[in-house]
Design brief:
77% helix, 17 helices, mainly alpha, 384 residues
């Protein structure tokens, strides 16, 4: 409301100044027209006096020269218009200019601004973002809250369950067994035991020590965020920092870094990260559909009108290569695509069609236990 009051007052003042200038130009123009008539009369009178012999030729020439100088000065000042035209021009032109300018300002604000929304200075926005970042729950707290909203995972088949019990016992007996931890993290996640999967991945990263890779810590980010119900916790942020230190171009870390910024009130930073990732990153990454759906909203919050670049279909060579694959290679390719789709849906959710696509693919691959876990997750994700 204060903005509109200030803007309206300024508009009235500007229009008043322009109008006053126009009104002042009218009398000046009228006076200029009267002076011009007087000078012309004087010039004609000087010529008549010379013709009658009242004044000499030299005196007449001097007088006419002085009158001509005054006429030129008056014409140079632009006051030779008729009074009516001057009055009309002095009022109409400034008035039209004021209407056009003010109309353009309000139209521009209506398009780019946010009428009715209270202004939030940059410093206040930054302070709020810092507060949101500090108020995030720790990983354990976020996992407890997320677990309350998730359905209890379905029990696996008896033989698979027995194998999992053996794997858990073996890892408990050998807590630094890297291969055992990798298997445990992967299978706990397949069963929908997201907190157990995150714990196993964290134990794996610790066991690897200096041999840990960016892929290992990126998998830890993903496990942490999944277990926390999509929240990028301080523990996940630490894993992001560790991953980017080893691999600044790591797509998983950059995606979750953007998600952290979006969750803590910095859409400007999220947009910069996600735009670069979407335009220059891998086109088949699991986060690409999420970015394509969400980046326009983040851009709008930043004040940018942005549309995701068009999708690129497979090249002809890719189709030929896929057709020439053996059944084993093709199955591996499909499994990799399914893994990517599952990772994205588990992390960020998706449409009902995408969940159905994942369930269908798992059915084709005859991974029924994994499909049960996905079905349970889908019921929670699509409960609304």
């Amino acid at each position: 409301m204060l903005f509109w009051a200030i803007a309206g007052t300024m508009a009235v003042l500007v229009a008043g100044v322009l109008g006053r200038a126009g009104l002042r130009a009218g009398p000046l123009a009228a006076a200029g027209g009267e002076d011009m008539a007087v000078y012309r009369a004087q010039l004609a009178e000087a010529e008549r006096d010379q013709a009658r012999g009242i004044i000499g030729a030299v005196e007449a020439e001097q007088l006419k020269t002085e009158i001509a100088r005054r006429i030129l000065d008056l014409d140079r000042l632009g006051r030779g218009h008729p009074p009516e035209a001057a009055m009309a021009g002095g009022l109409v032109i400034p008035g039209l200019l004021a209407v056009v300018l003010l109309g353009g300002v309000f139209a521009l604000y209506h398009r780019l601004g946010a009428p009715g929304v209270e202004d939030v200075p940059h410093a206040a926005r930054v302070a709020k973002a810092v507060a949101l970042r500090a108020a995030r729950p720790a990983q354990a707290e976020a996992e407890i809250a997320a677990a309350r909203l998730r359905p209890v995972p379905m029990a696996p088949a008896a033989d698979y369950g027995a194998l999992m019990d053996q794997l858990r016992a073996a890892v408990a007996a050998r807590p630094r067994d890297v291969e055992g931890l990798r298997l445990l993290a992967r299978n706990e996640r397949s069963l929908g035991n997201l907190s157990a999967a995150a714990a196993a991945q964290a134990q794996l990263v610790a066991a690897l020590g200096p041999e840990v890779t960016a892929d290992d810590t990126a998998a830890l980010i993903d496990s942490y965020v999944n277990a926390a119900g999509g929240t990028v916790t301080p523990e996940a942020e630490a894993a992001i920092v560790a991953t980017l230190k080893m691999d600044p171009a790591n797509g998983t870390a950059r995606f979750y870094a953007g998600l952290l910024e979006a969750q803590t009130g910095r859409p400007d930073r999220a947009f910069a990260l996600w735009r670069d990732l979407l335009e220059n990153g891998p086109t088949d990454a699991p986060w690409v559909p999420f970015l394509r759906n969400q980046i326009a909203f983040v851009a709008a919050a930043t004040g940018v009108d942005y549309a995701a670049p068009p999708l690129k279909g497979p090249q002809a060579a890719d189709v030929v290569a896929a057709a020439a694959m053996s059944d084993t290679d093709r199955t591996q390719m499909i499994s990799a695509m399914v893994d990517g789709l599952e990772a994205r849906l588990m992390a960020t959710g998706g449409t009902a069609a995408e969940w159905a696509q994942l369930l269908t693919a798992l059915g084709v691959l005859k991974q029924t236990d994994r499909a049960r876990a996905v079905w349970a997750k889908a019921q929670t994700a699509l409960a609304g």
